[in-house]
Fold:
Amino acid sequence: MPGPSRIVCLDLDTFFVSVERVLNPSLAGKPVIVGGRRGGPGVVTACSYEVRGLGVRSGMSLRDASRLAPDATYLRGRGGTYGEWSARVCAMAEDVAPVVNMASIDEMYMDLRGCEQLYARPEDADGDATILRTVRELTARIASELGLPASAGIASSRSMAKVVCGVAKPAGVRLVAEGSEAAFLAPLPVRKLPGIGPVAESKLAELRLRTLGEVAAAPVEVLRGALGAWAESVQSRARGLGSSHLGRDRPAFSEHDPEGEIVGSLSNERTFFEGLGDPAKVDAVLVGLCERVCWRLRRRRIKTRRLSLKIRHRDFKTQHRSRVLPPTDSEREVIPAARSLLLAHRDPRQRLRLLGVALSKLCFDDQLALFEEDARVHASVDAIRDRFGFEAVRRAAVIGGSRRGEG
Structure:
C-alpha cells in the first residue's frame, strides 16, 4: 500500500531562464529564450513563460522560435554555471529531507516520510499540514536566498508527486492526501501523466479516452490497443498508484510488467550549445554519462539488460540505437558497448548537439558480480559518492577529457 503523502517532487521553474535573470536582473519580466542567437542553428534549451504563450517550447529550433518571438532576448547559455546553482538548491533540500534524489538538473525528489514529528508545530492540524508548511518554507528559502522560483508536488508516490507538481506550476506548492489520488487525477487531461506524449494521446483520443479518470476506468484490454505493454503501468499511475520509497533500501521503481521487468529506465544526457567535435572530449562525456547511470543502478540495487544511445548532430537529426546486455550494473560492460554504438553511428564530420545514455529492461538480479574486483571497487567508490556527491570520484578518462577544449 502507498505510504502517507510524504514524497516531494521539487521542480525549478524555467530554471536556465531563472538563473539568467538572477545574474542579469534587467531580464526580469521580459521574454527570454536560452539556447543560442536569434535565428541561429541551435534549439531552444529553455524559455520564459512570456514566450510560451506565443507557442515557443523547449526543443524547438531557434529559427522557428525567432519567427514566433522575434522580440525576445536570446542567450547562448552558461554551461556549467547552471549545475552550480542546481547543487545549491540540492544542498537546501538535503537540509530538510534525509533522502534527496536528483532526476535532472532542475528536478529532484525528496522523501520526507517520518519527518512529521521533527518539523511539527502546535498550529499544524496534522502530519500533512506539517509537511505542506515545511515544503513551502523550503521553496520560500530557495526564492529568497537564490532568487529562483520553484514548484513542488507532495503525494504518496513519486509518479503522483510529479503530476501534482505540474499542476502546482508556476511557483506553487500542493499536497494530495493519501486516498484522494484517484479523485485528483480523474479530471486531468491524459498528457498530465508523465510518459504520455502526443502519439499516445492521439491513440487514446481515438478510443475516446481524454482524461486520466477515463483511462483509470477503461478495460485494460482496450488500453493495450493504444499503449501496448505499457497499458498496465499507465493505468496504475492514472489511479494514483506507485512506489512510495526513494531510498537505497528500496528501488525507486516498483511497477513491473508481466515478465517481472521493472517498468521504466534510467538515463542521463548532455546538450552542447556550440556542438562537440573533439573525439577525446566526446569520449570523456560518454564515459561520464555511463558512470552516472551505472551509479544510479547500483543505488537502487537493480541491473540493466539494454543500453540505448541517443545521438543528435548539428543538423538536428536524432538517432536512437540500442544493444542487449547481460544483466549488469557495471561500467565494465556498459562503457565498451556505448563506445561501440557511438563509433558505428556517429557522423565524425558533424559536431554533436546532444549525447545521451539510457538503461532499460531493468531487473532485480541477485547473481554474483562477474568480476569480484569490480564489485569491491564499486562498493568503495559508491560509498565515497554517497557521502560527498557523485563528482567526488571520477574516471581518469573523464578528468583528462574535461581538460581539453570543447573542440
